[in-house]
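Re: magnesium ion structure - here you go.
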Amino acid sequence: MTVNRLETDKMREIKAACACLFSEAAAKSDRFLDTLDVDMVKRAYRRNAKVHHPDMKASTAVNDVTSDRFLAIQQSYEVLVNYLEGMNPGTDAVLSQGKIVAVGGAKGGIGKSVITANLGIYLASLGLKTVLVDLDLGGSNLHLYLGYRSILQRSINDFLKKRVSSLDEVMIQSPHGPLLIGGDSSELGSANIDFMKKMKLIKAINAIEADCVVLDLGGDTSYNILDFFLQADHGIVVTTRDSASYIGAYHFLKAAMYRKLNRLTGMESRSGEDKNSELERYIRESTMTGDGQSSKTINELVASVREEHPQYLSTVMKAVWGFNPYLVVNRLPIGVGPEEVAGKIQSVARHWLAREVKLLGSIGRHPDVERSAIDLIPAITRHPRSTFATEIATIASKLLKTV
Ligand SMILES: Nc1ncnc2c1ncn2[C@@H]1O[C@H](COP(=O)(O)OP(=O)(O)OP(=O)(O)O)[C@@H](O)[C@H]1O
Ligand SMILES: [Mg+2]
């Protein structure tokens, strides 16, 4: 069964449980789910059990119907308590590794900023100190998805242009939970940062004191964007079902892997390797043709390193194995499984990159999300127990572990 179907089925089960313990009207209302808590479920269970528990009936009145009804009440109780506890895994949840999550994908308008904002709001709601960074330097709009209608008074540009000395000075508390380091692309040249500025930014992002730092990236495969993506402990590539989007997702993955290898010992690399120009030149020459396209698959590259430079084999293998991005399929129409989209990207990644790119989750097409882009109230804030919120929570849960 597909992830999307699973999520839809899960929501159907939750609504049926609401109908059983509360009422049909409650089951149909998103607002009811938003206000539901474990105490309400426990009270409803006791109320129903008083009426339907077989011990409460005269023995002659106990039949299959009363037993089935009581069983349904018990199951509904479990479904709702599990759901509510799953939506809030408690204060012990932390990212399974590191602190940086990057949300990328080589196309505009596919939902990177929507996902960053709502994922950030969800992570902050778990009590994690969460900082969102708008790294779409040429098209900053993450602040809009967090409810800001006008240009921010402080932005990442103030840091890049040395008007302030630290990122802390441009960090603001957003109204919906996470902290925000926003952008302002109305300032001329804001997208064009040189190598030293990029390094300064990367260093400052790595130094942010937080449980989670979520990076919202621009929609292309420029070196700056790839380098930001490669800083992440959890790299998420967003795609939709559109051909341009999934082809873009695949190009993004390939470009990120080859960028990582080509800058294996560069200043921006997280490999910890000492500068090694010979290794970098070898990788560059064997992976790039004259027009900048990669000409070798990763398996071919590894085979040639093994033969020609076996002393570098473990370094290259470590870099390849350390490349573990995830896919999120967004705006999925009802009835379509995300595997249909993800499978195409995964098979090309398997062939070219020798990596299994995991499907982290999928998000349906929700009118609530479209509305949030207009009235600037994040969809997860408006309906924290909606299907969309459950999808975001499911994605987050795969990035978290309990301690
Ligand atoms: N799951 C969804 N359901 C319905 N609409 C969606 C969904 N995800 C995104 N959208 C719509 O798509 C629009 C574009 O989303 P978003 O701005 O997050 O894309 P992006 O990938 O960040 O684009 P860019 O690269 O231009 O910044 C949003 O305004 C929203 O209306
Ligand atoms: Mg965006």
